[in-house]
């Protein structure tokens, strides 16, 4: 008769949830109903049960911890909450504590130990505005470098062309003037006269 009364108060099958027997040390997968904009979807939260409070009574809760993207996330779920679609026990571990809160410090210690050997690196993401200005700056620098290179190339080609023209043209000889021609003739005539 107590089942009939409790079934009227909650849309959850209380006996089924009680039989699951969630304990500290279990790895559970909790399917939670979430309503967004009039639609209902299921979100899965899988992690280690740190502790169960209030056993199997109506106000019973259990704490689940998981590490998501390097950050520890803990959620406290009421055992008989109608927003929980189902609870799956993925793995059972033998633990000697009823509350595993020491796991928080243990994980932090392990991370600190790993960080000892790590070295500092200066890496950061840029905002869209910074990225846009950086790309514009790189484009202008590239354009300036190309323009300067083109100018240098044009100057070099012009210099080579002027050298080539200078080599093609014969060296300017002094063309004989009228006075020079007469001197040359004189010499030739003189040479002929001596021979005579």
Tell me what you see in this structure:
- There is one protein chain.
- This protein is α+β, with helices and mostly antiparallel strands and 196 residues long.
- The chain has a domain at 2-116: SH3 type barrels, CATH 2.30.30.
- Helices cover 45% and strands 25% of the residues.
- It contains 5 helices and 5 strands.
- It has a 5-stranded antiparallel beta sheet with strand order 4-3-2-1-5, with no helix packed on it.
- It is elongated, with a radius of gyration of 47 Å.
- The termini are far apart.
- Mean pLDDT is 79; it is low at 1-7.
Short description:
By secondary structure, the protein is α+β, with helices and mostly antiparallel strands. Helices cover 45% and strands 25% of the residues.
What features would you highlight for this structure?
single chain, 196 residues, SH3 type barrels, five-stranded antiparallel sheet, 25% strand, disordered N terminus
Spatial order of the strands forming the largest sheet:
4-3-2-1-5
Termini separation comes to 164 Å
Which CATH architecture of one domain would you pick? Roll
Given this structure, which CATH class of one domain is correct? Mainly Beta
Helix content, binned percent? 40-55%
Following the backbone from N to C, one meets helices and strands in this order, namely: HHEEEEEHHH
Shape: elongated
Work out the radius of gyration: 47 Å
- CATH topology of one domain: the name is SH3 type barrels
What average pLDDT do the residues reach?
Answer: 79
Estimate the strand proportion.
25-35%
From the helix content, strand content and strand pairing, which structural class follows?
alpha+beta
Helical run tally: 5
Number of strands: 5
- Main beta sheet: 5 strands, antiparallel
Low-confidence blocks of residues:
1-7
């Amino acid at each position: 008769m107590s089942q009939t009364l409790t079934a009227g108060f909650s849309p959850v099958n209380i006996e089924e949830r009680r039989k699951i027997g969630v304990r500290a040390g279990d790895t559970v997968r909790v399917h939670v109903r979430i309503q967004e904009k009039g639609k209902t979807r299921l979100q899965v939260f899988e992690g280690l049960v740190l502790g169960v409070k209030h056993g199997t009574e109506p106000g019973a809760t259990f704490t689940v911890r998981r590490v998501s993207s390097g950050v520890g996330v803990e959620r406290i779920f009421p055992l008989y909450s109608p927003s929980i679609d189902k609870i799956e026990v993925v793995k059972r571990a033998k633990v000697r504590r009823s509350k595993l809160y020491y796991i928080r410090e243990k994980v932090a210690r392990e991370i600190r130990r790993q960080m000892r050997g790590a070295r500092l690196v200066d890496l950061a993401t840029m905002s869209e505005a910074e990225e846009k200005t950086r790309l514009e700056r790189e484009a202008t620098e590239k354009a300036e470098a190309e323009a300067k290179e083109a100018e240098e190339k044009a100057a070099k080609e012009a210099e080579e062309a002027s050298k080539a023209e200078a080599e093609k043209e014969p060296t300017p000889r002094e063309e004989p003037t009228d006075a020079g021609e007469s001197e040359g003739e004189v010499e030739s005539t003189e040479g002929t006269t001596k021979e005579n």
